[in-house]
Amino acid sequence: MRKLLIIIPIFVAVAALAGFWARPEPVPVQLVEVAKGEVETLVANTRAGTVKACRRAHLSFKTGGQVSELLIHAGQRVQAGDVLMRLRQDDLQARVDEARARLDAQRNLREQSCSQASQDQRDLQRLDRLAERNLAPQDQRDQSATRARLSQLLCSGGEARIREAEASLELQLAQLDQATLRAPFAGIVAEINGELGEVVTPSPPGIPTPPAVDLIDDQCLYVEAPIDEVDAALVRPGMPVRITLDAFRGRSFEGRVSRIAPFVRELEKQARTVDVEVKFERVPTDLMLLSGYSADVEILLAHREQALRVPTESLLEGGRVLRYDPSNGHLREQKVEIGLANWRWSEVRGGLAPGDRILPSLQHDGLVDGSVVSPSGEARERAP
């Protein structure tokens, strides 16, 4: 009996020691505490968008000619109406001078014919008074009336010839003006294709050629970006947008949806997108935003300031998370009700309480419901 009393405690101790060594070692993990914060529902672009200018003009001459004046350089800022480039104009100026001289001549001829018409009309009136007293023959009076009428017709015809000369002058002035390239709006010169003394020619129909001057209005910029066709129905003009640029990492810019394309673009099979245009609320003055920069947009559909939230990457299929049970060090699956969500945060409407700790991501292989874990720094080591 005494041996039995000695053997039993030894057996229990050995079994307990064996159980201790057989127990799985806790896996050290980083946990995140469930807390309140900002949660947004967003729509993002599927491919990189592009910064574009609201106004961009590829300016060219309507007629060909030799460049006689180049008044700008690339990168120069110009105002609306400024002269950018001129073609050789001596022949055109000569035609203008010719048309102006012809107009002056027609005005002179009209003045002469109208003066003659006035004189003939006075002569006719004198003959009429003499004919009334039978002091002038009738045939002389008829001849005077014919001269007065012809003179009046020449005077009236002079008005038409003057209008014709004026139209010819306007035509020559228009052709002269077409040899001068002016800025249609204020902006910055992006590119010049033409040098002083070089001959430029207009583009033949259907064959595009580089413009003489590429002018950009850099004070008004927007981003054109594609979004998935499924998300397009959720987007409306005027929605706030967060814009990020690869060239300025770490900064974001405010914008608003200004336009949604009225058609779906099909660039690749199974990839259908809708282009949206996002206008900057304020173009930053401390940065030089260039047309052509790549950009990403996040269109804000819904927003909540103080919402209980968890990292979106912590969610298992079916809206479940692995919650840490501090009483026994186990992970337990917990069903949660999800509200607003984006790629980073998801709103929790039920199933968790502030202060609960969960596994923040699914990067730990083999961790499932019931796994024994230890928050980083709390993992116990086996005794040697």
Write the layout of secondary structure elements.
Blueprint: H1 2-22, E1 27-29, E2 32-33, E3 35-44, E4 49-53, E5 56-59, E6 65-70, E7 77-78, E8 83-87, H2 90-132, H3 138-177, E9 180-182, E10 187-192, E11 199-200, E12 213-216, E13 221-228, H4 229-232, E14 240-245, E15 252-260, E16 265-268, E17 271-280, E18 294-311, E19 320-325, E20 330-335, E21 337-341, E22 345-350, E23 357-358, E24 373-375
Parallel strand pairs: 1-24
Antiparallel strand pairs: 2-23, 3-18, 4-13, 4-18, 5-12, 6-8, 6-11, 7-10, 8-9, 10-12, 13-17, 14-15, 14-18, 15-17, 16-17, 18-22, 19-20, 21-22
Helix pairs in contact: 2-3
Walk me through this protein's architecture.
It is a single chain. The chain has 4 helices and 24 strands. The protein has 384 residues and is of the alpha+beta class. The strands form 6 sheets. A 6-stranded antiparallel β-barrel has the order 4-13-17-15-14-18. The longest helix has 43 residues. 19% of the residues are buried.
